[in-house]
């Protein structure tokens, strides 16, 4: 029995090792530009500061203790936590890269090599995120340390685990969402304009600009069902302890559901797209 | 005068050529306009939500703040339509060595490099900005038209525009030494983001020094604040206007010098 399974185990190990190698190469590549990463992270701090100052001015002028259930401290904490959410879920250039490969014919490199394109891209993004998170850990820790007063007590272990899970699912959600968008490139040659619209809209409806609690009830319900809020808003409010255990479980289940749906759509459209693909170009 | 009319003729040709290029991709052009409208709508919804919770932000009322946004949108529209793409493309010219062809032409290098292409798709932003400003003035019951105030607005707005253009030119000049425009675009994005907030939000004790830095060292905060204050709040501090004038002169001079110096450091590097 063991002998019969040996080739299967060996084959699986070779496959895993192949993708681990890809991950390692991508890590080396990403680390080449680590200074650029640190510089970009520092540049992003100033807008965070101005947004915090704007909200402080709103609270001061309104004289209110709480707006949409958020105290001033919680609002600042939320704005900071959004950056952590986006650290996991944002996938700059992924959809455009896929569309570019389709348009220019360079996609055929995946067809003549024993590599699955989506798994390859997943490894590449993992490497990107590992590098990004480790290089920006120091400047972000510094920022969070300065703003530590705005956080209540550290969440308990259950909340913390739910938070980490929501961030990891946010990564998968962001990844498969962008892959699905990129797959449109099989049927539409130019998707840049479409991506602009989605990115602009996503910035608002994922809660990056402000907590979604400020929106009317109807829109909150609509956005609760859609996948966008799970890429920014949801992990942040989990950490802030704004949700009950049931709400967290429901949210995580919806997030898992969307990750699965987008995974299936990505695989299916890739399969269908390859049948449509004529490999013209370079 | 003949020089001015020569440059004007060339610029008109740039405008025509850019329009023909843009209209070759009509759908893309329309989508870009739609995205700009979408972004403006999002901004307005955001501020409407903020003002549903307070009657002023850092002493700016809803109408005054709306005027501020319109002013920012108009200035951003002018910069993006006329200069941004050209400046962003400068890195590519340096990297590919195509800058040679520009330098060989009997024309001012700064003029041709920073004005060659007009981005027509962002031009509607200027109209949107003006429309928002007019609306903000119309719904503001306390505001009345005064010619001197309007002229001061035009002057300070032009100064703000010149400072922004000069800052962009300085960033673009650094491409000769740093052949990677990612950082340049990040810095530009940062500058334009900082422009869109009232400087009164920096009155908090911990942010005071940052506000000072952004007023006196990198004057991002005065670009929109002074013209908008002049027009809608009728608040014109002589020292502010004087500082804006000094900044305009300094930035124009420094950016021109830096650009010229950058060109002397350029080594044609193409095949």
Furnish the topology, listing elements before pairings:
The complex is a heterodimer of chains A (282) and B (271).
Chain A: H1 2-31, H2 34-62, E1 66-67, E2 70-71, H3 72-89, H4 94-104, H5 108-111, H6 117-146, H7 157-183, H8 192-205, H9 217-225, H10 233-239, H11 245-276
Antiparallel strand pairs in A: 1-2
Helix pairs in contact in A: 1-6, 2-3, 2-6, 3-7, 3-10, 4-7, 7-10, 7-11
Chain B: H1 2-23, H2 26-51, E1 56-57, E2 60-61, H3 62-96, H4 99-103, H5 109-115, H6 123-138, H7 147-173, H8 182-195, H9 208-216, H10 222-233, H11 238-265
Antiparallel strand pairs in B: 1-2
Helix pairs in contact in B: 3-6, 3-7, 3-10, 7-8, 7-10, 7-11
Provide an overview of this structure.
The complex is a heterodimer of chains A (282) and B (271). Helix content of chain A is 75%, strand content 1%. With 282 residues, chain A is an all-alpha fold. Chain A has one domain (32-274). Helix content of chain B is 74%, strand content 1%. Chain B has eleven helices and two strands, in the order H-H-E-E-H-H-H-H-H-H-H-H-H. Chain B has helices at residues 2-23, 26-51, 62-96, 99-103, 109-115, 123-138, 147-173, 182-195, 208-216, 222-233, 238-265, and strands spanning 56-57, 60-61. In chain B, strand 1 and strand 2 (60-61) form a beta hairpin. Chain B starts with a helix and ends in a 6-residue tail after the last helix. The model of chain B has no long low-confidence stretch (mean pLDDT 88). The A-B interface holds A 36, 39-40, 43, 46-47, 49-50, 53-54, 56-58, 60-62, 64, 67, 190, 192-194, 196-197, 200-201, 203-204, 209-210, 214-215 and B 27-28, 31-32, 34-35, 38-39, 42, 45-46, 49-50, 53-59, 180, 182-183, 186-187, 190, 193-194, 197-198, 200-202, 204, 207, 210.
